[in-house]
Amino acid sequence: MKKRILSLFAILFISAFAFYLVGCSGGGINEGENEVGQLPTGKIEIEFWHAMGQSNQAVIDQMIASFNEKYPDIIVSPYSKGGYDELREAIIYGCAAGEGPTVAQTYQDHVALYLQTKNARKLDDFINHSDPEIGIAKEELDQIFPSYLQEGRVYQEAGTFSLPFNKSSEVLFYNKDFFCAHFANLEQYGVKAVETDKDGNVTDVEWPNPTWEQVQAIAQYFLTTDEYKDIEDKSKAAGFAADSASNLFITLNQQWGGVNAYSGKGSDGKLTYLFQNSAKGKEAIQWFADGFKAGYFATATKFGEDYSSNAFVGDKTIMTLGSSAGAGYNVASDGHFRTGVTHYPQRATALESGKEKYVIQQGTNITLFKCASADEEMAGWLFMKHLMSYEMSLLWATNTAYFPIRKDVYEGNEYQAYLNGWKLDKDGEFVLDENGDHVSDHKVGVKELTQQIVFSQRDYMFTNVAFVGSSYVRDEAEGIIEAMLYSGMTLEEAYALAIKNIDSKMGK
Asked: How many CB atoms lie within 10 A of CB 309?
């Protein structure tokens, strides 16, 4: 983690001056914007930079092929830049050299940086264009889930600067076979029997709406079981593991301390790091650190892994909190146990009151970068619009582990058939049996179940305000967790170091 942060720190300082002077696609930066004109004419090439893995790149290739059926003269060159941090660094370097992307995958806090350096292109004139081939009609825009659209507008400057692309959330994966074998001891923690065999043994379970108190109790129970005793290196075992320490920090703050406990505006109206003054947030982080010391909780670092899903499928933990987009990584490839999936844990008081339920909204958007050529910007916009279409959203949602960005896709027969394992006829209608029930077409797996869980959490998803430096705050949120768990720092020491690091990166 430290090497990555220091690398970014160096890049920002090296590139900062040039970044303000040079535009993303060559030539001097245009602090204004090209006028939104007509459709491009002649051959034109655009670059799409992303951070998708190999399997998802194949879907991107299908999207580009579909786009070229309509616009054969626009050549889309996709470039994978590694992970999301590597993509951010590539854009920083590329824009500084005048060789940045036309369109790129972006996180909200990354766009705040690109806005500060005047490289992100405002999209409202494209969206509202009178030509229907360019603009997006209101009824079409209304099909995008509102929270996803809003994420592209929560910046230091008014306007729309990104549109949704791949969306996910976090869910809790658990070892279903362990839960079945120990059902008699786990029933008191909200686990429910779904099926039993002829001898009365529980063979399938579900665990709806778990609480953090239940997660802790089951993690504690795991330490008393034969499964735990059979683990040779107990220093690399725990009942529960969180995949992303930064997401954990952000969400626990939100659940314990309410809205804006992570970052936002202070009493003076200036953006600040509110988490440093949140007593409730600190209570949450200390609670997790205490659970770690007791052996109940962990992050991927404890297992010597990049992801806690590796520890989960390796039987080093029985519960892991991770991205819905990574559902497949939480399934044992040899099938030696079945994976269950359920909602993000909430505090028991939140479930009782129905208030202060939160789960982080994840996933990237797509951003258009300012170009020397108005035709290139228009070509990039047309590609963005294509990616958001019904057909492309459906293709993406049914061939990856990401959630659809459109309501009409989610509610449509094709996606519902995919999600529930139902059969469709040649006209796209559901096939029903003589009792009026859906006829099965395929088995519903962990990926489909995970997407069902994500949708059921939509009403309490949240995002944080994005501002210049908010990505540094996120980096240091992870640092607080890691410092307390693995460097022996007290809570106050870890928080003080985080604020010092953020201030340093912000030039304070």
From this structure: 24
- Residue 179 sits in the same domain as residue 197: yes
Q: Is the dihedral of CA 354, 357, 363, 367 positive or negative?
A: positive
Same domain, 333 and 469: yes
Assigned token pair, 143:
């099909």
The answer to whether the CB of 132 falls within 8 A of the CB of 139 is: no
Which tokens sit at 275? 């988490």
Q: What is the pLDDT of residues 77-118, one digit of tens each?
A: 999 999 888 998 899 888 878 889 999 999 888 888 888 888
Written as six digits, the tokens of 505 are 């990166």
Q: DSSP class of residue 421?
A: T
Q: Map tokens 């059969």 to a residue.
A: 423
Single out the residue of 284, 271, 254 nearest to residue 466, CA to CA.
Answer: 271
- The answer to whether 321 touches 241, Cβ cutoff 8 Å, is yes
> Looking at this protein, which amino acid is placed at residue 78?
P
Other residues' Cβ atoms within 10 Å of the Cβ of residue 124: 13
Residue with tokens 């008081």: 349
Range of the domain at 187: 169-360+461-505
Other CB atoms within 10 Å distance of the CB of residue 244: 23
H or E, element range at 49: strand 44-50
**Neighbour tally for 289: CB within 10 Å:** 20
Question: pLDDT for 44-82, tens place per residue?
Answer: 999 999 999 888 999 999 999 999 999 999 999 999 999
> CATH code at 281?
3.40.190.10
CA gap 34, 374 in Å, rounded: 6
Per-residue tokens: 191: 């686990």
CA distance 146 to 456: 16
Instruction: Check if the beta carbon of residue 51 is closer than 8 Å to that of residue 86.
Output: yes
Q: Examine residue 219 and state whether it is found in any structural domain, yes or no.
A: yes
Compute the distance between CA of residue 298 and CA of residue 236 in angstroms, rounded to an integer. 9
The residue type found at 212 is W
Q: What pTM does this model have?
A: 0.86
d(CA 231, CA 411): 45
